[in-house]
UniProtKB/TrEMBL annotation:
<dbReference type="InterPro" id="IPR020845">
    <property type="entry name" value="AMP-binding_CS"/>
</dbReference>
<keyword id="KW-0276">Fatty acid metabolism</keyword>
<dbReference type="GO" id="GO:0004467">
    <property type="term" value="F:long-chain fatty acid-CoA ligase activity"/>
</dbReference>
<protein>
    <recommendedName>
        <fullName>long-chain-fatty-acid--CoA ligase</fullName>
        <ecNumber>6.2.1.3</ecNumber>
    </recommendedName>
</protein>
<dbReference type="InterPro" id="IPR042099">
    <property type="entry name" value="ANL_N_sf"/>
</dbReference>
<dbReference type="Pfam" id="PF00501">
    <property type="entry name" value="AMP-binding"/>
</dbReference>
<keyword id="KW-0443">Lipid metabolism</keyword>
<dbReference type="GO" id="GO:0044539">
    <property type="term" value="P:long-chain fatty acid import into cell"/>
</dbReference>
<comment type="similarity">
    <text>Belongs to the ATP-dependent AMP-binding enzyme family.</text>
</comment>
<dbReference type="Pfam" id="PF13193">
    <property type="entry name" value="AMP-binding_C"/>
</dbReference>
<dbReference type="GO" id="GO:0005886">
    <property type="term" value="C:plasma membrane"/>
</dbReference>
<keyword id="KW-1133">Transmembrane helix</keyword>
<keyword id="KW-1003">Cell membrane</keyword>
<dbReference type="GO" id="GO:0000166">
    <property type="term" value="F:nucleotide binding"/>
</dbReference>
<keyword id="KW-0812">Transmembrane</keyword>
<dbReference type="InterPro" id="IPR000873">
    <property type="entry name" value="AMP-dep_synth/lig_dom"/>
</dbReference>
<feature type="domain" description="AMP-binding enzyme C-terminal">
    <location>
        <begin position="501"/>
        <end position="573"/>
    </location>
</feature>
Length: 620
């Protein structure tokens, strides 16, 4: 009898995984994700409690002790070990200190493209307890000054190739008493100090940890610029807690200590810097750094450097799939791709063409307090819900009115959670473990991202601005972005910023900027509806001039629609949804349309241009 009971129990235990598997085929992956998440939660808890704070820099220094001779950064034909990177950053820190009395808490703005110096500079600043402000190296003039002023930096360090852009804003910087350094041996412009020579000659001895003794988990580590819902870019505050959370992503998706990661996304964005570089430091792996993405060199680089993990944004995956097929398409060691924004059709194409690569699609905003990972590899999903999620933090999809551009409220004035399978706006509760640090020196915009009294009186949520859908198995799908931004080529474009530039053109009275979908492309491309001043014609040349100089190419309106009057809501908010749906087909729209031709300017839109775009003969 006893034996029989024992037998039943053992058999039952053996069958249990099968039963669980039948009920949930993702059980094991769910469980393994949950275990990692608990480990990370545990480590974060220790970081929060420790009296002397352990930062990602300390992690780097531990890697230096543990594996000084392991390659850390590979760039072109050069490579630097962990030990060398440590010394290089000591030199940079000492050279900076010799010029400016930097102390912990000060901010230094970095304005350069991807290169090893980017990494040395940031490590140097971390060693001095300073905050690094990561300026987008594509921005110029007014936007550059705006971003610089956001973070109250006293010092700007620029790459040699950006001298012209710096000179353009130099008078204003001088007025603010900013010290400007350039990574150059010699610079003859008054007010710009070259610093490369000093860096080379500086001592590489370690800097005293005393210099950063006051840094704690809530100290600002970085400012990363995002184009949010309105106006010019905003400096999202990345404190050390947020930095750690993002650095753990590689651990979550299963990057191993022998992996080699390819980082070509800009280091001034969170994907390249936090997920790529900092994640690599947490794992102690080798980073193959590249200045810019190049479709023709992508796989060659992967082969040359034995890359095993690549980062991506959706556009990149499509470029790779669109490139001419080669015989050696599957000849590489890449086993994992980590990123976001890949479309389902591209995903399937990619796997079929380049082989069995685990694609880990992730979701999260730079400044956000909520993130998801599609750790199952389900095509098309940006994440999967896990039972831990719901215990750890509270988020919800709420019903949203895209015409009125606001959440739908019930009779008591609270938001309504959408049923499974329906699209809703993602909001996440702001709490002690899910903080929202907001934007530097901009409490007004920080406030705008917060929603109050969402489900009960007095609660507080972060408004992600993204419309998502969750299916019955818990897979999360991205649907759309709301409001005043759209994404194109992996960059957020703030419609009001673009409109501000258009309004500087003499002939333009009102401008409404929005994004339109283009067949075969992720995201939306810029389009503007314009109302012209009385009795003036559309001045295509002046308009081109005004968008070409200050705006990066991804933000320039590709299509222009001239209207007699712009439609506004009862509260004089511009309507974008309907215009965006109407698109840019001259056969449908009777208003005059213009198209921005590369290196030429605005030309009248024709049916032929439209067909070429629709059929993919013109690449946007
Ligand atoms: C890549 O791996 C191969 C074989 O494992 C090795 O011979 C080669 O030296 C490696 N290349 C680099 C750049 O490390």
């Amino acid at each position: 009898m006893l034996l029989y009971i024992l037998y039943t129990v053992v058999a039952g235990l053996a069958v249990l995984p099968l039963v669980l598997y039948a009920r949930n085929p993702y059980f094991l992956k769910d469980l393994s994700y949950a275990i990692t998440a608990i480990q990370i939660g545990f480590r974060m808890g220790t970081f929060r409690k420790q009296s002397s704070f352990y930062s990602i820099l300390d992690r780097f220094l531990d890697q230096v002790v543990r594996q000084p001779h392991k390659k850390f950064i590979v760039f072109g034909e050069s490579s630097y070990t962990y030990g060398q990177a440590d010394k290089e950053s000591n030199k940079v820190a000492r050279a900076l200190l010799a010029h400016v009395p930097l102390k912990q808490g000060d901010t230094v703005a970095l304005f350069l493209g991807n290169e090893p110096h980017y990494v040395w500079l940031w490590l140097a600043l971390a060693k001095l307890g300073c905050t690094a402000s990561l300026l987008n190296c594509n921005i110029r003039s007014k936007s550059l000054l705006h971003c610089f002023s956001c973070c109250e930096a006293k010092v700007l360090v620029a790459g040699a190739e950006l001298q012209e852009a710096v000179e353009e804003v130099l008078p204003a910087l001088k007025q603010q008493g900013v010290r400007v350094f350039i990574l150059n041996d010699d610079c003859r412009v008054e007010g710009i100090e070259s610093i490369s020579g000093e860096i080379q000659q500086a001592s590489d001895q370690p800097l005293s940890p005393q210099l950063r003794a006051n840094i704690h988990i809530k100290s600002h580590a970085l400012y990363i610029y995002t184009s949010g819902t309105t106006g010019l870019p905003k400096a999202a505050v990345i404190n050390h807690e947020r930095l750690w959370m993002a650095s753990f992503l590689q651990l979550v998706v299963g990057v191993r200590s022998d992996d080699i990661i390819y980082v070509y996304l800009p280091l001034y964005h969170s994907a390249g810097f936090l997920m790529g570089l900092c994640g690599a430091i947490e794992r102690g792996i080798t980073v193959v750094l590249r200045g810019k993405f190049s479709a023709s060199n992508f796989w060659n680089d992967c082969r040359k450097y034995n890359v095993t993990v690549v980062q991506y944004i959706g556009e990149i995956m499509r470029y790779l799939c669109n490139a001419p097929k080669r015989e050696n398409d599957r000849d590489h060691k890449v086993r994992m791709a980590l990123g976001n924004g890949i479309r389902a059709d591209t995903w399937a194409d990619f796997l079929q063409r380049f082989g069995d690569i685990c694609i880990c699609e992730c979701y999260g905003a730079t400044e956000g307090n909520v993130g998801f990972v599609n750790y199952i590899g389900k095509i098309g999903a940006i994440g999967k819900e896990n039972f831990l999620h719901k215990m750890g933090y509270k988020y919800a999809l709420i019903r949203y009115d895209t015409e009125k551009e606001e959440p739908v409220k019930d009779s008591r004035g609270f938001c309504i959670e959408v049923p499974r399978g329906e699209t809703g706006l993602l909001v996440a509760r702001i709490g002690e473990r899910t903080p929202f640090s907001g934007y530097a020196r901009n409490s007004q915009l920080t406030e705008k991202k917060k929603l109050r009294d969402v489900f009960v009186k007095g609660d507080l949520y972060f408004n992600s601005g993204d419309l998502l859908k969750i299916d019955s198995e818990g897979f999360i799908f991205f649907q759309d972005r709301i409001g005043d931004t759209f994404r194109w080529k992996g960059e957020n474009v703030a419609t009001t910023e673009v409109a501000d530039h258009l309004l500087m053109v003499d002939c333009i009275e009102e401008a409404n900027v929005y994004g339109v979908k283009v067949p075969g492309h992720e995201g939306r491309i810029g389009m503007a509806a314009l109302k012209l001043k009385e009795s003036l014609d559309f001045d295509s040349k002046a308009t081109y001039r005004h968008v070409k100089n200050p705006l990066p190419s991804y933000a320039r309106p590709r299509f222009i629609r001239i209207q007699d009057a712009l439609v506004v809501t009862g509260t004089f908010k511009q309507l974008k949804v309907k215009l965006a749906e109407e698109g840019f087909n001259p056969a449908v729209i009777t208003d005059p349309l213009f198209y921005l031709e590369d290196n030429k300017g605005y030309v009248p839109m024709t049916q032929e241009i439209f067909s070429s775009i629709a059929e993919g003969r013109i690449r946007l």
